[in-house]
Structures are given as C-alpha cells and as structure tokens.
Structures
1.
Amino acid sequence: MKTCEIHCGDAATILKKFPDESIDCIVTSPPYYGLRDYGKQEQIGLEKSFDEYLDKILVVTAELKRVLTPAGTLWWNHGDSYGAGNRKTGVEDSLSNKKRISTKHRAQGFDKCLLMQPHRLAIRMIDEQGWILRNEIIWHKPNCMPQSVRDRFTVDFETILFFTKSKKYWFEQQKEALANPNRKNFASGNRTFGKNKDRNDNDLGERSKNYSFPDGRNKRSVWKISTKAFPEAHFAVYP
C-alpha cells in the first residue's frame, strides 16, 4: 500500500481519475482571488470577475464531493482580500499574510471592500451542491506579517471551513485543557439580569456540578497556530 502519491496538474482534471466515494478526508486550500500570477494559462485566481472565479472553484468542489466517501470530511482553508476598485493591483492587500504579486485584474465594484471570499463560496457550495457546513474555524496566526494599513485593523487570521456530504460522518472529538477554577466558577451559578438581577441561577449551578471534564473540554473553533518559515519560493505552505 502506498503511503504517499503525488499527482501534479489541474485539480478538476486529476480528480476525474479518482473513483466515486474513494477518499475519506480532504484538506486543501485554493488560490485566493486576485492575489498572484503563477504564469499559467489555465490558472485559478486571475479571472475577470469574482463570480467567474467562484464558478471555477465550484467545478473543483463538485468533484471533491463526488470522490468523498459518505462518512468523509472536507477541510477548506480560504483566506480573504479587499477589492481594489480602479487601481492596477488585484487587491488592496492580502489578508492571508502571503507575499502579494501585483496583477492587472481586480474585483469590479468592490472598491476597498472585504470580498468575503470563503463565505460567498460556502453559501454557493451549500445552496448549489448540497454540502453541509459543520464549522467555521478561525486560524489565528500570532506571528502574522505586519500590514501598513491606516484605516482598518491588521488581520491575523484565515478561515477554515469544515464540510461534510452526509449528516452522519466519522469525527473524533478533540480535547483541550480546562483549568479547575473554570469548572468551579461554572458550578457556582450565574447571576441573572433585569428584574431578577439579585437572584443567582442556582439551578444552573446545581446542574453544572453533574458535569466533569477529566479529559479537558471540547476543542474550540479558534485555533492558534503560528506559521513556519520556508526558504523556497512558496508563500502558502502549511505550518
């Protein structure tokens, strides 16, 4: 049994070679719109319009759904960018903290506006292809590259979308440490507000004492993962 096999080429074309429902887990990240020119005629990301870009991505996601097993999962990492209006560059700057390469393409009608790339794509995947979105995960990058913007905040995260094709799928819950003081505070009850603001919700406190977390709590959906240095000409390597 092969442990690693690399196929180089157009994703939509290569995926057609795989049989239906043959892959259990897919982890991927597409080229983001308007950020980089790879010098290839059929590349994704430099389409004349944002809608055309989404159409091309959806061709790939349709094939991904076909090859994914009923119990399989898709983990889709997708950063965002800002429209550049009438300027020559494709975006104001990249939210993915990747090195930007100027292009002649731009998102029409989105001057300085956050494009919401992952969210627009997710809605179409759900509406048009029947994907089930289980989580929107925030990949927080503590060591993100500085941005020279003056009229908004520096963005230090990317989005990871957790999709399935079936309501029942294979999933192993991940745990993270939970300090004892938090459990004690949770069990002490919540103070209510409004006309009952002087009353503690002791019922919640009593019921919470029945819960224990010997292995930690369920993993949250904000993942703090630093990026790693890479000496080669690749600005989108996984950590």
Note: The first strand starts at residue 23 and ends at 28.
2.
Amino acid sequence: MQFKAAFVAAAIASLAAASPTPRDDQPGNTCSTGPIQCCNSVSSTSNPTIASLAGLLGIVLPAVNVAVGLLCSPISAIGIGGGACSAQAVCCEDNSSSLISIGCLPVQL
C-alpha cells in the first residue's frame, strides 16, 4: 500500500514539473514602448538624408547617432500566422510618425 502511495505521489510530482508555464524570456509582440515594429530600414539621425526627411515632415530629431526606423509597421501576433518581419524588427521609443520611428533598438524574433 505504501508503494502505491509513493508511486502516485511521484507521478503527480512529475506531471506538475512537466506542465507548461509562461516564460518571460520569450519574445512577445510588444516592447515597453509599444508594439514591435518591422521597419524597411534602420539608419542614424546623423545621416543627412534622414535629417532632411525629418525636417520636411516637421519632426524634431534628438541627439546625433540615435537609431531611426523608416517605413515601420507594427508586427502583430508573433507565432500566429504571419507575425514575421522580412526586414528589421525593432522596438522604438517614438512611433508617432508613420514614416519615421525614433530611438529604435533591434529585436530578435
């Protein structure tokens, strides 16, 4: 009888250890600044072309050498049908413009 109880306890413990749990280290579809963006290209605010484009759009760029994403769109539902990015996946501090996202950091999908 004791063997049976020990076997049941071991089986329950192994099931509990094998059950899936959410992990914080897996990529999601959001950053602390908003959704992960897929940008056609990423450049720097020190690039004269970027500075000119921002000026034409009335966007004030921060200090020199800040990464800027061009033509970015949010990536939705990573892992569920398409949520992929064929260009550069980034998290950006300012996604307020549809053409330029400011303060971007690369993200691994």
Note: DSSP finds two helices and six strands in the chain.
3.
Amino acid sequence: MELILARRNQFDNWHKVAGSGWLVASYYGSPKRNRAMLTGSDLLTKVSELQAQNATRTDIVLACGYVKPDGKASYVAFYEALIEAKTPQWKSQRIKEETETHLEFDDEEQEEKFLELCENYPQEALEIYYENIGNFDDFEEAYMGEYDSEAHFTEEMVANFSDTQIPSWIVIDYQATWDSAMRFDYWEEDNYFFQNM
C-alpha cells in the first residue's frame, strides 16, 4: 500500500498526521466527488456514528456532504439541516412524554395525528372521539367544544346561528330544543360536543 500526503478535502480515506496540517491518504482512497448532502434520519445516523468515533465538528460536516465549492465546510447549511432533522423528533418525543393515554392505536398514522391534535385540543375530547369513531379524520370539523350541559350548548348554537336578537321576555327551553332536534345532528360525552359527520 502506497501512502501520499494530501489535504483533507482531496480524499475520502485519510488519516491525520499528528502535529501537521497534512493528512496521509491511502493510495486506494478515492478522490472526493460532489456528494449529496445528507438530510433527515440519514444525517442523524451519520452524525451519531461519527460522534462515536470522536470525529471533529469539521470532519462531521464534511463527511455529511456539506462542502462549499472551495472545499471548506459549510457549517451553516449543515446545522440548518441538523436542526430540521431533529425538530420533528424533539417535538414528537416531548409530546409523547407529556401525553399519557390509555388508547391503543391501530396504526402509527393515527398515533401521530393524536399527538399533533393534542397541541390544540383537549386530550380527553380526542380520546372520546377516537373511542367512538375509531380515527381522527374528521375530528377538527366535528369537534364543537366543551359545554356545561346540553342546554348550554344549544343556547350557544342558537346565538351563533341567529342574526336577530331574541327579546329577553321570550323564554326558550334549550334542553327541550336539544332533546327534540339538536341531538340528531350532534352528540355529547362528558360535556364534549361533536357534530355527526
């Protein structure tokens, strides 16, 4: 095997010569080509492997393909890609840690949707909906909110649908309105109301 002196950005297989700015590259080492920059899980895997080998930051950046045209490491592009690759993991992991549920999901897609919806809706409402419907496909459209009672929900719906001000001397039995009409278009459990889809 023949050894040659080379700069770091010239060869893939190289070894640093202690105390110098030069590297020893294997004769069989291939000259660097313009590699595709690693992203997502590929980037995270490669970074983990190189960190386990105690590689320097510059070596990691270059090995992951973040090289400027002049052969120098492109730190900004590398760290932007690294943050982008880690963000969904951090977010998903944080939500999973904060969200304990008794639900058992049939597929990973429904679990991810559940975790996503937990950021904006009450977890209990999501659990009730999933137990009754079996998926979250129409949850955002179906969810009407949390109300103290069927009568309170009906009163809010009447107020939202009606453009006219109902005179104060008119008395409406909102519970009877729910019982005779609204219950066919909406359903309720534990004070969470949903529209039938």
Note: The chain has a mean pLDDT of 80.
4.
Amino acid sequence: MNLTMHPSRIFLYICLCFIAGVFISSAYLVSQIFVWLFFVFSAGIISIFWRRNKSAVIVGFLFLSFTAGIFRYQMFDAPKDTLDYYKRTNPKEEYAEANFLENKIGDFKTSLRKSMDSALSPPESSLFGAIMLGETERLSRDLKEKLNRSGTRHITAISGMNIIILANMLIGLGLMLGMWRHHAFYFAVSFIVLFTIMVGAPPSAVRAGIMGGILLFAQKAGRLSQARRLLVLAAAVMLMSNPLLLKFDVGFQLSFLATLGISMTSSWFMDNLKFTPQLFGIRNTISMTVPSVLFTAPILISNFGQLSLVSIFTNILIIPMTSLTLGLGFIASIAGILSETVGRILFWPVWLFLSYSYKVIDISSDMPFAVWEIEAFPWYLGVLYFVSLWLLVKHFKMER
C-alpha cells in the first residue's frame, strides 16, 4: 500500500469497499458469524498497527468498510428477496398527505399534460409525455419494444445518462444561441432542476440529477477525476440510506455506470473523433453515447434479456433532436396552458422532431440484426465484462 497515498484516494477506496460489501451481501447470504469475524479482524488490525504501520491501518479500514456494507444490507428492515416490496416503497413514494408544493407540482403537470394532448396525437403524444414527464405507462407495448430494440429506452427514463447527454446538448444549444459558456452551463443546470421538479421530484429523478450535476460541474471546472470521486461518494451515501438500490433500482445502476463511463472516457473519445463534425453537437453526442452504451451493457442485458446492436447509431441520430424536442416542447406546453391556439402553432416543430425520432426508432428496431437476444447473463460474466473494460481503458489510456 502506498504510504504517500492522498487522503482523498484512501476515502475513495473506503467508499468503494462499502459498495462492494453491499454488492456481495445482495448476491449471497453471508453468515452473521463471518460478518462479526470480519469486524473483529478489521478492528484488530487497526488497533494493533495504529501507530506502527499506516499501510496495515488502511487495510484494516478497507476491511471494516467492506464489512459495514455487508452489515448495512443485512440489517436493512425489508424483505430483500422481494422486488414487489421495493416497488411498493421506493420508486414512487406514497405520501399520506401531500403538502402545498406537491399539490401545485401535480396541478402543473396535469396542465402540461392537457396542453400536450390537445396538440399532439399518439404515438407522438405518448412518446413526448414519456420523454418530458417520465410517463412511461402511457407508452404502448409495441412502442416500448421498439425503444428496447433500438437501444433508446433511456430517453424515456429518468437516469443520469439521459440527463448528462441532454444537458450537454443544451449547453451546445445555448452556445449556438450566442450565450457565453458559463451562461450556457447555468442554462443547462436550470433545465435539470426544472425537469426534476416537473416530474414530481421522485427519488430516481433526484438521484439522476445529482449524478448528472456532479459531472457537469466537474466538466466546467476541468476536473473530471474529481467527478469520479464525488460520484462514488454520492453512490455510497445513497446506498447507506437504501442498500436495495444496488440490486433492484435499474435507474440507479444506469445513472451510476453511465456517468462513470462518461467521466472516464468521454475526453478520450472527443480527442480521437476529430474527424466527426461538431455541427449539432454530433461529436459530443458520440463521445457520451459510446461510453454510456459500453458501461451499461451488462445492466441492460440482465434486465431486458437483449442488447441492442444499433444503439449507438440510433442514439446519434435522435439525441440532438431530443434536446430540441424538450426545449421547444416545454415552451409550447407553457404557451398551450395560456392559449391553446398558440400552443398548437408552437407544437408544429415539436411534432416534426417527434415524428422524425419515432421513424428512426421504428426503422432501426425492425432491422434483422437490431438486437442480440441473451437468455441468461450470470452476474460473474458482468464482473468479467467490467474488469475487461477497465483493462481496455487502462491499456488505451482513456482515463483522463
């Protein structure tokens, strides 16, 4: 162990060990006897070598953090083997009594929904409702399957991957409109806050906003390495609050891994894709889409039983339009609340962008080689995949 290791790096490893402990406990039933043996072993190392060997003390704290992760998962008061319990208690919080702000947010969402429905018809209306308000229940089964096959389901999910890509597109849009870079940055951050509030500020949106915000602020400061440390810290804190997120919450998994992938490799892709045009943020979109797909592939396979082989191509075509759809759609929806006629007029370009996106999704999902069907994907293959991916990142020096 490096004696000169910076305290921030030691703290990073402690957080990672806690997350690893939660992961092991979620995959295997660890006996309480072993948990207490780990605890005694860790405490013993720390107490024996406290003033003698700093390396041994660090190892002791790493073991202690790992044990704490196992203990936290086991002591969480919930039937951990039932996904129904988690769905009943976490993704959509049930409030005994909504407060004034929650009522107003609900009324505002209802008004936005009416404005959209008066100007758009299916499938554009259901697609826009899912993109803007996260109302995936309005999507038809056929459209959901098309989104899965084309690798674009994330545009309807409240995940860090979606927020980061859209926020960077909004920064590019702000620059195209003549904003200074710091103004464009705060324009994008404001959009994230508004988006989170618009969908009712559920925990999934708040977590995605936090992870996306961490990366955006790190990009602005030019310190992407700090983003990774803050991301791990944020994940550890969230798992301390609810360790079931790691096993059951797909949005949490996608947000964390996509943000991690973007923070580690997007700069490398930007430097090596200079042959691609900057127009409409194409290079930026590719640089974020590729690592997002690579880092989230095992999660998508294990949850949906398939991997989209046209995902990168399809996302490059529709992500720029998605940011325009959200921006113009939000303005049109607000205008529609004030005047239905004005709203209908402003929704014309939104309908055009939605029709284009739907057509691209429809065509790409119908390609015979669109998806790779995978019946079983054991967790150890996922671990092997991520280890191989990490070795590739190190080999090509992608990490910046």
Note: The chain is about 75% helix and 0% strand.
